């Protein structure tokens, strides 16, 4: 019976080892819509697993589908792991998602061991792919999917619409990870080399950024979509109660694009009074901030802000399409 899926972050991360938030978002969404599917996560860099060791674990678990993830510079890891899995599990469907395949599906799908690429925001596309495979239907018409045709040409299907309300997406499936292992890892588990506590967890309060800087990924789209403040505060409260974490990294692309929403979220954190340390490693928009928000940040426990300046030269800003 097809009921097992394994999600894998492959490769080696000698420094940064942030929690694989994308994988557990995918898992949480899939669990909501296909509750009979048994899910597991292998985080290779957490355990310093070689590709062949990951493949042996996959062989032992016998999932009908494996999902891999990675940024562009992780593509060699992704492809190596896919080859290793294919050798021992020739019938397993291998799918790749994340910013790497979204940016350059041809580069990733040049590896023949990989069957499909999930482009952009992955929850709905991955769900429909799994559902279609379980129903033994043809998945090659699914929006947001990339694959090779019979001649080996990479085909990109129509772009899938983004999830309009991110609060409709369940809280990530943190229970699939051993969170204490991240807290105790000798590797840096924050997005930034500057942090206060190892008991650190990330959160997304919004998705997407409306600006079109050419150097940035486009995984979550160019439309700003925020979760409700209540939903965000509920997740933070749950994480504190469950994992006793001490530091929060808000990893939005542009947290303060809607400054009133940013203030409401920050006030909600203040009201929780969890004594958290808070950082914004991805940066916030320096033109979209005021003294009131800064005062709220201070009360909430924010100790580090990053501003995305990129260039002090007007010509340079035009080249990268930096919009103010």
CATH superfamily of the largest domain: Cobalamin-binding domain
Helix content: 25-40%
Which sequence of SSEs, written as H and E, runs from N to C? EHEHHEHEHHEHEEHEEEHEHEHEH
* Gross CATH architecture of the largest domain: 3-Layer(aba) Sandwich
Structure, described:
- Helix content is 35%, strand content 18%.
- It has a seven-stranded mixed β-sheet, sandwiched between helices.
- It contains twelve helices and 13 strands.
- The protein is globular and about 60 Å long.
- Helix 4 links the parallel strand 3 (65-69) and strand 4.
- The chain is α/β, with parallel strands linked by helices.
- The chain folds into two domains: 4-156, Rossmann fold, CATH 3.40.50.280; 190-315, Transcription Regulator spoIIAA.
What's a concise summary of this model?
This protein has 324 residues and is of the alpha/beta class.
What are its keywords?
324 residues, alpha/beta, Rossmann fold, Transcription Regulator spoIIAA, 2 domains, seven-stranded mixed sheet, four-stranded parallel sheet, 13 strands, globular
